[in-house]
Design a protein that fits this description.
Shape: globular
Largest sheet: 7 strands, mixed
Number of helices: 16
Radius of gyration: 24 Å
Number of strands: 10
Structural class: alpha/beta
Strand content: 5-15%
Length: 410
């Protein structure tokens, strides 16, 4: 009898417990509201992210000329006039820098115009670069954001595509997925199967980085995972199979960009497959730990099997390059060094020569939803900042070289 009473009491207690979805929903609302409050404190609703101005030395380095050349152009009234501070320092916006590049490209000054304005030329295909891995926390979004911004700083026309429903890339680029992205305003709008499909041109929005546009993401992207099986079953997918829909959407804007950077979700669903099938190259981010390597092994095996099915269905899968990027790498960590050596022995040149070194500077910048390219050297410990920037520029410069090779420039 006592045992029955205990069971009854336990059952009664369980009956009064809230359901799991209610508990999770309450916690999600609490976290979302807190994050929103923190975001509004850092960036009030009426404000927009603005990229800092660059010193004349920084501008000259980005353009590839001497500081004295910029000074002479200012005195001669060539190109936009920089902002001048009270102590005589000249400050340039990225738009100013790009305008100066065009002026220099027209005059050439003994160099080819492409040295200043590196847009794609006739015969050079749109470079679509997927940044991916099955395991979350491998640094995909950080890599995507910094790469897209780096290429924009070099003068390329860049489109960042947030394919991850968590939309961290969108947040880093100044677009809050919960607030700024409404219904039918993500990539899903351009790849959906029903009559509400829109042109990708209607979804793209400019960012505070001159030359860098964004296709934002939010939870709406998950709809593609739900509607694709229905479309496959019913045959209602029209002329375009699911794996070609992202590529078809990008074809609409091909002439407007040089490079597209796709931040893929940490899973092998229809979204990721469609993103990979639209790509011309791929970077797999990997944290050099054995657990992460094991996870990546499973990711590669599944990718092989799924893309094999896609290829048999008619998908054209030819990549200009596939590279593995070591992220959050600590050179003094012996186990990480061994894992890195293992990968280099196995994959040889397919591992990028330069790793992305772990740095407090990247984490500190991320606290305010910023990247190293926008936060400025004066806001962090200079040695830490310089070390992180050296690593970051080396990685992104190596990727830029691979893009140029794919275009036949090197």
């Amino acid at each position: 009898m006592k045992e029955i009473n205990v069971r009854t009491a336990v059952q009664s207690h369980r009956n009064h417990l809230p359901s799991v979805d209610e508990t999770i929903g309450t916690q999600a609302d609490l976290l979302s509201s807190q994050l929103q409050a923190m975001s509004e404190a850092l960036f009030p609703p009426t404000s927009q992210k603005v990229l800092r101005r660059f010193t004349s030395g920084e501008a000259a380095k980005l353009i590839g000329v001497s500081d004295s050349t910029l000074r002479k152009m200012t005195l001669a009234g060539e190109g936009p006039q920089p902002q001048t501070t009270s102590n005589g320092r000249r400050l340039y916006t990225l738009a100013d820098i790009n305008a100066i590049r065009k002026v220099l490209a027209q005059s050439t000054r003994g160099r080819e115009s492409i040295d200043f304005v590196p847009y794609r030329r006739s015969g050079e295909h749109l470079q679509v670069l997927a940044v991916t891995n099955f395991k979350g926390g491998s640094g995909k979004t950080t890599t995507s954001a910094h790469l897209a911004q780096y290429l924009a700083l070099q003068g390329y026309r860049v489109l960042a595509v947030d394919l991850d429903p968590q939309a961290s890339l969108s947040a880093l680029l100044g677009v809050l997925p919960e607030v700024d992205v409404g219904a039918n305003q993500t990539l899903y709008a351009a790849i959906r199967y029903d009559s509400e499909r829109r042109s990708l041109k209607d979804v793209i929005r400019p960012t505070y980085f001159d030359g860098l546009d964004l296709v934002p993401g939010n939870l709406e992207l998950m709809e593609f995972e739900h509607t694709t099986p229905k479309a496959l079953t019913s045959g209602a997918n029209g002329d375009t199979l699911f794996f070609a829909r992202v590529a078809a959407a990008l074809d609409e804007v091909e002439q407007d960009y040089d490079v597209v950077v796709i931040d893929c979700p940490p899973q092998l669903g229809f979204l990721t497959l469609s993103g990979l099938c639209a790509s011309t190259s791929m970077i797999v981010t990997v944290h050099p730990q054995m657990l992460d390597i094991s996870s990546m092994s499973q990711f590669l095996l599944m990718t092989r099997d799924l893309l094999g099915v896609v290829r048999e269905a008619g998908g054209d899968l030819k990549f200009d390059f596939i590279r593995y990027l070591l992220t959050r790498f600590e050179p003094q960590d012996a186990p990480q060094t061994k894992v890195a050596a293992l990968l280099r022995n196995l994959f040889d040149d397919h591992v990028l020569t330069n790793p992305m070194v772990k740095s407090a500077a990247v984490s500190d910048a991320g606290l305010t939803k910023q990247t190293l390219y926008e936060i400025g050297r004066e806001n962090l410990t200079r040695t830490t900042y310089d070390r992180a920037m050296e690593s970051l520029d080396a990685v992104n410069g190596e990727v830029e070289s691979l893009i140029k090779q794919a275009w036949g420039r090197q």
